[in-house]
Fold:
Amino acid sequence: MHPFRNLLLISMGRADSFEKDPNPEVWGMLFNMARLQSLLGFLYDGILRLPEHQRPPQALMEKWRKLAEMTADIYRRHQERIWELKPILERAGLRGCILKGTGLSRLYPKPERRMCGDIDLWVEGTHKSIIKAFEGIGYPLHDIIYQEAHVDLFDDTEVEIHFHPSKMNNPFMNSRLQKFFWDNAPFQGTLTYPDARFNAVFCMAHMYRHYLVGGIGMRQMLDYYYVLRELRPEDRAQVLNTLKRLGMGKFTAAVMCFVQFNFGLEDEYLLCPADREYGEKLVNDIIRMGNFGVLDKRNYSSDDESRWRRFVRKNRRVFSNFKYFPGEVIWSPFARLSQFVWRLCNGYL
Structure:
């Protein structure tokens, strides 16, 4: 068993120790992998479970501890800012729900160990009504695209306002996806969290889009592991049917392979049988590219990159997966062009 997978299982309480005692070089590799996959906080708990003789060298142990505490500090700050969001939404006359990292961290045994970036807030209403509402209370939105925008609410925490939780390149599949979101919108009260059935579709769509565009990491797969464990048995068939109707059947089977192989997920929690061929590709891509493709040179841009070169580079990246997911990939250039036209017509460029 690879030491990193071994450490993952230890951190999840599925193993007690390494099969082979790691030396300092192995620990250096594990630290770098954990950093690139944004799992330092989560894996630190695994280190604390280890017998003394299997723990990392003292200097690395201390460095890892400090970074894990920083993750916990960010989590606590996010929780404070979420409480402050509620009166802001009330003043704007809006309702919203917390998506992605900050929302999913509550599914973890220790939520404070899940590294979070910004706060993603899906707000009820059309994009124009939402923009107007925030402007009305003195918080104009900026960097506006079809899916989301940024708003400067806090000095120490970024907030993204989502008009749509996620999107797809294929306009027909995207229409179905948006219908699912609005039919299952979790807007109950001023501020809330989605349920597991919503997350099972939303998180898969989010991973699918990012995998094709730039890459995803093991942290997103770990999120989905916990979503699957929370999902009620009677909802699994409905979730799978929805994902298939959205053209994500093959990707779902690949994700099942990933979470079963790396996290030891039991068959009873799987949405469908695992696909080994697609799953092995997904595993290799995630390990090779790092969290959100941080190591993938196809995602790198230069300061003088023109819009046309960016358009070509990003589409070339997406088309590398044409063999596996042609139904979504073929629409990529048109989706990017429509995004540009939408921003141009609405004055958001």
Remarks:
- The chain is about 55% helix and 5% strand.
- The chain has a mean pLDDT of 91.
- The CA atoms of residues 186 and 194 lie 5 Å apart.
